[in-house]
Amino acid sequence: MTIPEVQRVSDHRIESVVPLMSPALLHHELPLTHELSASVLESRRQVEDVLNGRDPRLMVVVGPCSVHDPIAAAEYADRLRDQAERLSDDLLIVMRVYFEKPRSTVGWKGLINDPALDGTGDVSKGLRVARALLLQVLERGLPVAVEFLDPITPQYIADTVAWGAIGARTVESQVHRQLASGLSMPIGMKNRPDGSIGTAIDAINAAAAKHVFPGIDVSGTPAIMHTTGNPDAHLVLRGGKGPNYSAEDVNASLTLLHEAGLPERVVVDCSHGNSNKDHLRQPIVADDIAGQLEAGQHGIRGVMLESFLVPGRQDLGGDLTYGQSVTDACMGWDPTVEVLERLAAASAKRRAS
Ligand SMILES: O=C[C@H](O)[C@H](O)COP(=O)(O)O
Ligand SMILES: C=C(OP(=O)(O)O)C(=O)O
């Protein structure tokens, strides 16, 4: 067989192949210092304590739907740090620093995949920019949340993460469940976009088990990963065809978890299917959840909010408004502070009861 024939057989639909640095090289360029490692470990411990009911606070995962401008994200982190400190008796605030966007069909896939926002796909630059921002957020004293979408990228960034999500579109995927079984932090399993909670419960069980699968190690070498299983995978209610945040929905989910022999704990996402992607509805959802906390609902261990400096969303393409989402619509800063205060007061009341 001639070389051109071999190429036709193997790379028929590959346009080009561009080398990528190894995770170890990126860690070398942008190291997690000893101090920051200690802070990640401490944040993970706090997240685990909240999820396991040893810490009565409410976890709030809050931040932009996606990061497209690291400068605006760093400004957001500055503001959020002040709130996290101020409300720390009642809330464990974790910043959404989401770089990987799962698309229903096609669309911008996030800053790691396409840091220039124009489809040129400079993944090397994307990983560098992402890791640099993650370190900046940690330096501000905030724990970090991401969605894990690509099975290769965790080796580049997961050492900085205190809470991870497997999204609604990938929660049924064996690849993602295996990945979750080996990740070092608690993982939220979202209900499927059609509302299926059983699929997320299957994912929690699958992630708790040991797995063996092919992956890459930190040097970038193909490796067979043997995982221990992740005991801290948990359900995230994000709504489906309709919302699923009501007291009845939460109780029904807790019952399903109980019947599956799993800890009765949920995180409720105020955005996505629970707000019908209308950012103005997120405070309404959060207020309902606050009411449930005040009524003594201990199964709700966390809340997710999509929030940025400027409310709403914009399309990529033209001149961009600083601090506004380019994916789903986000709450603006002032309503975010009001929602955090409402949730903090409800968390305090629940603790007192
Ligand atoms: O969180 C963001 C979006 O909801 C998710 O990436 C799916 O977006 P899409 O349906 O617009 O592709
Ligand atoms: C994509 C997200 O959520 P979901 O998987 O629930 O759609 C997200 O939180 O950014």
TrEMBL record:
Q: Where are the transmembrane segments?
A: none
What's an example GO cellular component term for this entry? cytoplasm
A single GO BP: aromatic amino acid family biosynthetic process
Catalytic EC class: transferase
Phosphoprotein among the record's keywords? no
Indicate the segments forming the DAHP synthetase I/KDSA domain, all copies: 48-340
On the tree of life, the source organism's domain of life is: Bacteria
Q: Which GO terms describe its molecular function?
A: 3-deoxy-7-phosphoheptulonate synthase activity
What metabolic or biological pathway is this protein involved in?
Metabolic intermediate biosynthesis; chorismate biosynthesis; chorismate from D-erythrose 4-phosphate and phosphoenolpyruvate: step 1/7
- Which Pfam family is one of this chain's hits? DAHP_synth_1
Q: Which UniProt keywords apply?
A: Amino-acid biosynthesis, Aromatic amino acid biosynthesis, Transferase
Reaction catalyzed: D-erythrose 4-phosphate + phosphoenolpyruvate + H2O = 7-phospho-2-dehydro-3-deoxy-D-arabino-heptonate + phosphate
Respond yes or no to whether keyword Plastid is given for this record.
no
Q: Give the E.C. number(s).
A: 2.5.1.54
Name the protein family.
Belongs to the class-I DAHP synthase family.
Described function: Stereospecific condensation of phosphoenolpyruvate (PEP) and D-erythrose-4-phosphate (E4P) giving rise to 3-deoxy-D-arabino-heptulosonate-7-phosphate (DAHP).
Q: What is this protein called?
A: Phospho-2-dehydro-3-deoxyheptonate aldolase
Which species expresses this protein natively? Winogradskya consettensis
> What does UniProt list as this organism's lineage?
Bacteria, Bacillati, Actinomycetota, Actinomycetes, Micromonosporales
